[in-house]
Amino acid sequence: MNLASILVVDADTTSRGLMAHELRELGHTVSESEDAGSALELVRRKRPDLMVCDFALPDLAGVELLSDVRGSEELRSIRVLMTSASPDNADVMTALESGADDFIGKPINRHELRARVSACLRRPANLSLAEEISAGGITVNNVGHRVTVDGQSVALAPREYRLLLFLLGNQDRVFSRKQLLVHVWDREVAVGPRTVDVHIRRLRSLLEPFGYEKYLQTVRGSGYRFSLEP
Predict the structure, then answer these.
(1) What are phi and psi of 195, to 5 degrees?
(2) What span, in angstroms and rounded, lies between the C-alpha atoms of 44 and 13?
(3) Are 58 and 14 in contact (CB under 8 A)?
(4) Range(s) for CATH 3.40.50.2300 in the chain?
(5) What is the pTM of this model?
(6) What are the φ/ψ torsions at residue 15 (nearest 5 degrees)?
(7) Could you give the angle at the alpha carbon of 25 between the alpha carbons of 167 and 172, nearest 5°?
């Protein structure tokens, strides 16, 4: 999952706050709005990567706000995840037919929210990562899934590749084991947090012959980061 700018639009203060908190816990930049009018203003000004929008807004139906976004040449590429407390399946069909990327019912399940946000942010048409990322002699080609260190090809297992790509793409930011499990493994269950430690050690062992293992830094009590600074 890439880190993203996310706008949460919901008139229910409690529901909006819970979703915003959950997404901030993952490291995303989150804005909040309680109605369609202010949401549209924020969308035009901030151009978020994803809008999480409820069906029931006080001034305009959420699906109408969705239509406004999809009808704008400048805004139509923004992903939209619709939410609704209605048990009526018609809401799901209406949302998807109106251009929503996905739909989630209420009450919001935090694990499902994370999974659906992750799926929206992985959509090929809106990838936010550059084709190639380089730092300190390490280059990751995000198209060919190739890693070179000082011009020499290095073979990584899929999970190590995703972990390096994520940390390299978010240099100098510290991520907890829990955050890395969600962003790199797309889950926080079934595998324990120490799994992250194992993969970090493997990455360091591959970078050690080049003297670059020092870039994968442990921040005591917080987690890990990739940084060229000591």
Answers:
(1) -60, -35
(2) 23
(3) no
(4) 5-126
(5) 0.64
(6) -65, -45
(7) 30
> What are φ and ψ of residue 81, in 5° steps?
-110, 115
Closest alpha carbon to 95 in 51, 127, 38: 51
Write the CA distances from 106 to 8, 16, 20, integer angstroms.
Answer: 14, 11, 15
Between strands 152-154 and 146-149, the pairing is: antiparallel
Cβ distance 171 to 226 under 8 Å?
Answer: yes
Mean pLDDT of the 19-27 span: 94
* Per-residue tokens: 134: 């380089």
Crossing angle of helices 158-169/177-185, nearest 10°? 120
Amino acid (one-letter) located at 63: V
- Looking at the domain 132-226, which fold is it? Arc Repressor Mutant, subunit A (1.10.10)
Write out the two tokens for 62: 């959420």
Q: HSE (CB half, 13 Å, CA atoms) of 93?
A: 4
pLDDT tens, residue by residue, 99-126: 888 899 999 999 899 988 988 887 643 3
Assign residue 111 a region (left: φ > 0; alpha: ψ between -120 and 50; beta: otherwise).
alpha
Report residue 189 CA to chain centroid gap.
18
Structure tokens, 26? 């993952």
For the segment 162-188, the average pLDDT, to the nearest whole number, is: 82
Q: Which fold is adopted by the domain 5-126?
A: Rossmann fold (3.40.50)
Q: Determine how many CB atoms are found less than 10 A away from the CB of residue 74.
A: 10
